[in-house]
UniProtKB/TrEMBL annotation:
Pfam families: DJ-1_PfpI (PF01965)
GO BP: any one term: regulation of DNA-templated transcription
SUPFAM superfamilies documented for this protein: Class I glutamine amidotransferase-like (SSF52317)
InterPro entries per record: Class_I_gatase-like, DJ-1/PfpI, INH-QAR
Name the record gives this protein: DJ-1/PfpI family protein
PANTHER family recorded: ARAC-FAMILY TRANSCRIPTIONAL REGULATOR, DJ-1_PFPI DOMAIN-CONTAINING PROTEIN
Residues covered by the DJ-1/PfpI domain: 6-132
Upper classification of the organism: Bacteria, Bacillati, Actinomycetota, Actinomycetes, Kineosporiales
Signal peptide: none
Amino acid sequence: MTLTVDVLVYDGVNDLDLAGVVTPVHMASDVGAPLDLAMRGISPTIRTSAGLVVNAVGRLGGTCDVVVVPGGRGAHGAAEDPDIRAWLAGLSGRSSFYAVCSGSLILARAGVIPAGTGAAIHGDKRDLLNAAGVVPGSGLLITESAVTVGGVAHASPKSLRLAHQLLRHIAPEHVSAVWARMELLEP
């Protein structure tokens, strides 16, 4: 069975948050994991925080097995977008959710991460997460609603740590091959 992994892209998404998760997941499909990876957004093209243009392969909608939500400067705006919130809320309870840094804010505002639950986020955005009723944290946090990573580590290692957790969940037999191919030590 092929698992579908949708990655939310939006204007201002952080390049390292995005690439740090997408690269190992894509590589897992290269080494045989039955995964279908797609970028989803509210527009066909978005501009990352560093100005790179990313093409979304599809608009928001439909179902998927896994949703990845990277953080970035545009996370606050994405968290307020009604289409993004509705799409994520519609997947709640049916999909697994993974968020890097301020991607947690987007999930919280969509109601995917319920009030009173912990989620990792960058230190200077903790007040936004707290205002959404979610308990801000750092490091790798695994709850029933989502796996989140954020805090004091740099964006790329955080994203890779989240990707490792994601691959352990959806393609455990391919994790070592992906990490070897990327010449990384498993966390």
